[in-house]
Batch of 3 targets.
Target 1
Amino acid sequence: MVKLRFKRFGRTHHPVYRLNAIDQRSPRDGRPIEELGTYDPTNKDESIQFSCKEDRVKYWLSVGAQPSETVAALLKKAGIIEAAKKA
């Protein structure tokens, strides 16, 4: 199964993450299928903290890729996926 999750980059106390489509059996920093965007949580400007290729993210979601909890929250905040309705 393909997951949308982050790989950690950057230096000590200044993490930068890359959003990837990756096989769920791969290690966190393993080889991705495709790189889809970046997330810099230490950037003060929230409008540029998270950036991604929306069309490719939507494609991966349409073919069954599952986002991690953190990725799902950021995609909801960016308006790419809708919040799940609670019954």
Target 2
Amino acid sequence: MSASLDSGLPRPSQTTTLRQRLGELRGPGTAPRALDARALAALAANPGCRRRALLDGAGVDKAALASRLGSPAPFGQSQFAIMRGNSFEAKVKADGGRELLRLLGVEEPGAVSVPDLAAAGPQGRTARTALALREATAAGTWTLLDHPLVALEVAGSPVYLEPDAVVVSPDGRWTVVEIKSFPMIDGAADASKVGAAARQSAVYVLALERTAAVTEGATVAHSVLLVCPKDFSNVPTASVVDVRKQRSVTRRQLARLIRIEEIADALPEGTTFDVEGCSSAELTEAVESVPHAYAPECLAACELAFHCRARAREAGAVETLGRAVRGELGGLTTVDAVLAAARGEAGDPEDPAVAALRRARAMRQEALDRASAPSEEAGACR
């Protein structure tokens, strides 16, 4: 898989069968839901979840699926937030991108080229973007690509990604620009939001590197320009964010993803996630046929998280306690098994996890005994 991240997209003849299979999983006549960089970053953060890998790869509308399963997720932006974000982005890119270049530290860029990236379909737009990048690099002038489309192969399936902008400098350096509507107050933004933006931008960097590898003189910056409103105004300000760590982690996690066709081949015959054509019971059976890897972090990144959490709780799985706790418990996979091991009713005493649990229980009991001792002594004196 790591090699495929650097290779070109599969030829149509290589992907026809897979596309047909994924179309059957979505349901007849159901258009695939595009997988964006935000979803891809979340997928890379949990590469062991076959359920999300398959549903995202097939383009299933997970929000609609979660609603049919009875566990809707409160995801999505308000219309006001979307309009405010679009207005701010237009301000940033105004005047042919000169304001954006100023934020990059370029006061007098001279002529700025803004090529037309329109084309038919995602493959056409991807090809047009690649051509514009090559032409801009060869021309040696400042160029702004507004909403280019780049491609990345993930688990054997192409994913099309749309950065807010990419700036090409005269020396052939490509810089990803990420425009967000959350504010930078006194030069700093919310750390969790910046981290999410960095992970999202790292996906764009990986995709651009595939094109840069076959473009003479091109390099992709491993620092992205994060543009946000200054304080509580609508005035744009910017910060350079180093995404080398996020890029490395995302690349490694994407390489661990099992190929989508392998997951699909393991499903029972006739499995489908057709939200419109199947009953809730049938959809539940289909979803449960694909293993998941729930963790509390999923609640902020996946539409099916509430459904998966409910199933994990029903099974008493220790995953509901978090990845760190799960890692410490070793072969103890259920809460009942953990409690039994702590009480000495089950488990191998030589197992470090079991030994630690019994030691912790003994220490807890000792602390409780000490806490109750003074009151007992005082009662005896009276």
Target 3
Amino acid sequence: MLKNNVLRKDADFDNVYKRGRSVGERYVVVFYIKNHRDINRTCFLASKKVGNSVRRNRARRLMRESYRLMKDRLPIGYDIIIIARNTITGRTFFEVDKSIKRAFSKAGLLKD
């Protein structure tokens, strides 16, 4: 059974990249666009620049956990792509969490 809150289609990715907005932070880049649905769809990416598969998977796990803890403070109806920068390697959860929160605050998506 597939989760309905995950971006999967190439067309959806293209839409976010081409028409959406982006915000960069020290360890992550966040792309986002309104999707006019009643859910947020997300995706967590780490390229080979981040490192080997162990480092990429750890980066995605850190980003996913940070998002999970703050998703209740985000507005509904967005497609969100969170991309790890190569500087994320070797960072703690608290550093990554702080970076993601700053990115969402810059984007104006984080409610207090």
